[in-house]
Amino acid sequence: MNRSKAILASLRLANSLLWTRLSSTRPICTRVTHFSLLSSFTPSYHSCTSHFLINTHNQRLCFSTQAKSIVDLVIAYDWSDDLENKLDELNTKLTHETVIYILKKLDKDPPKAYNFFNWVCEENGFRPSSSVYSMMLRILVNKESLKHFWITIRKMKEEKCYIDEETYLSILGVLKKAKMATDVSALNHFYDRMIEENAMDGVARNVVKVILGGEWGKKVEKELEEMKIEVSDNLVIRIFKELRNYPLKVVRFFHWVGECSGYEHNTITYNATLRVLTRHDSIEEFWSVFDVMKKAGHEMDIDTYIKVSRQLQKCRMMEDAVKLFELMMDCPYKPSVQDCNLLLKSISSSDSPNLDLVFRVAKKYESMGNFLSKAMYDGIHRSLTSVGNFDEAEKIMKVMKNAGYEPDNITYSQLVFGLCKARRLDEASELLDEMEANGCVPDIKTWTILIQGHCAANEVDKALMCFAKMMETNCDADADLLDVLVKGFLCQNRVTGAYELLMGLVEKARLRPWQATYKTLIEKLLGVSKLEEAMGLVRLMKKQNYPPYPEPFIQYISKFGSLQDASDFLKVLSVKEYPSSSAYLHVFQSFFNEGRHSEAKDLLYKCPHHIRNDSKISALFGSAKRGKATVPSGKESTQV
């Protein structure tokens, strides 16, 4: 409670006039939306033909019954000799797609994934490609399974497979994050040696050089034929990766390899091709190769689907992402519930979600005999509220309850967001009271969305009222909410109010603002000549272990500041006794750029002895005497 009172006190600093209005202001909301009035739901939206309550379809799997039995056994039981015996009895050769599918299911259980991988390679006769090995390495790169990780890398080398750059950088990042310096060094050494020793790497580079040497035509094809390439899956994959920024050339090489060299494409190369073609300028070719792959009896593996789908979503190619999802749901290797959730979330995150796509995803998932999860209902609900379809959103909430999912902070936050987006701010505020009445206490994210909605509508004073109300509920503010409020103040050019709010919350509530919040506010303060306040923020940044932000100060002081300002600023930058020589160098350079040579010289005389004798600073002042002041060694960053 004391902390809440302290924060409220800081708000009074930020906007003292607001509080006199607060005591006399009538309740914000004028209308309450009740979500408990409807007892049934039939969506009126034309695409939503499913009722989301009853599932009558049985899930279908297209791959063989024996292969399905292997998948079920591996996923359902702990690894043991008994399980291996049962798998051996089935006597079924597993395909690339099935192995990828099982490994994806086991990616959170590295020991089991490793045991399965060994069994399928040694007992089942499966020969893994580079892409399968890469997937195994990503699964095994953790402290508990590092021994198996390095065994797998050695096997990979023996099989003449390679680690592609994407996988290398991914697992290198994991090792660095875990501070496993020895393994980082070993991986770097292995990767460098692999590139040096891999003759395939040289062949791939030569092929790529020919392909990129000119427009595809008979000349290029002739040069490729004369190279007498010994084509393999791994070589083709390597070439595709090298050509990933030239998707149309990938397609031409893909067809040339299949038609001219006697090489027959398989699941591995089809999937590698599809990964490269997921772009706006090659989406037609993507679907063409996809159709050819299906006609040839091959399937997209689940790892490729996940990567392709996420790339489509990242590029906002949502129509294609939904089409691919529907096709994959009809395949043996179906997307998971998490994949479906992510797709719905991506669709709903756009400014104006396409409801037809939303309901297509939900309908397709349900038609496979699945029940919609809470996250899927949230995705549908988020889309409806985002486009302002609150009547249908209300019905969805009722259906969620009937399905056993009580509305929570996520559900209500989406509705608050939609109401704020529609500028129905009073209703959005009233909704939080309704939440509490229904036993759902608003959390910091819900409050932040409400306050951000008011700020976006330029209703900063009302946003502060909401903030005050939040503090009275003992819900503590965080850096996200502070950033929202500061930006709200700055949008109204209330720079001093933003500064006082931040300082008050840091002092009274011990908040640690985001570094970006500090930087934005520093720039705005300097824009209104509040140098002392801006330097106060730098002092706070240092206390909270953020690096200082000198660039805007140097520009400001060199144009408008005094020698004392420059001296004070350099003191603020100091970590122990003095800032680094490069910090001084950039201050002097900036003064020279503004034509303030005499002030720069006066400042130099005030500097400590080691700064005056610094070789680069001496060279700078020497060049100034000759009429040309430049940083001696070229452009440098300011080191403090």
Automatic annotation (TrEMBL):
Give any Pfam family that matches: PPR_2
GO biological processes: RNA splicing
Q: Where are the PPR repeats?
A: 266-300, 301-335, 373-407, 408-442, 443-477
Give UniProt keywords alphabetically: Repeat, Signal
What residue range is the signal peptide? 1-25
Q: Which InterPro entries match?
A: BIR6-like, PPR_rpt, TPR-like_helical_dom_sf
Highest taxon in the source lineage: Eukaryota
The record, for PANTHER family, names: OS01G0970900 PROTEIN (PTHR47003:SF2)
NCBIfam families, per the entry: PPR
This chain belongs to which protein, by name?
Answer: Pentatricopeptide repeat-containing protein
Origin organism is Acer negundo
